[in-house]
Write a structure and sequence with these properties.
Layout: H1 3-11, E1 17-19, E2 28-29, H2 42-48, E3 53-56, E4 69-70, H3 72-83
Parallel strand pairs: 1-3
Antiparallel strand pairs: 2-4
């Protein structure tokens, strides 16, 4: 979601964000090469921790079709543990 749209959602009163195809692009890393630390970029972090985020539907898999490592599940667990303060449905 573009940062400007997320800002507009935050400025609107009583707005709930329902993400039916939740995906954090920065949580997907190349499988080949040296080990890397997952660094969620600022836009993905703003979405994942948004107080407007109410529900999330995400496909969970360890690898993408092109063999990239997918850390979305770990991000969702952090969100459920409190990073997304108003998340009600996962």
């Amino acid at each position: 979601m573009p940062r400007t749209v997320l800002s507009a959602v935050h400025n609107a009163r009583f707005c709930r964000l329902h993400m039916h195809h939740f995906h954090l692009r920065s949580a997907v890393l190349p499988r080949n090469g040296p080990p890397q630390t997952v660094n969620i970029d600022q836009d993905d972090r703003a979405l994942a921790a948004s107080p407007a985020l109410f529900s999330v539907v995400a496909g969970i898999r360890d690898y993408e079709l092109d063999s990239q490592l997918n850390y979305t599940e770990e991000a969702l667990l952090a969100m459920a543990a409190g990073a997304a303060p108003n998340l009600q449905h996962l």
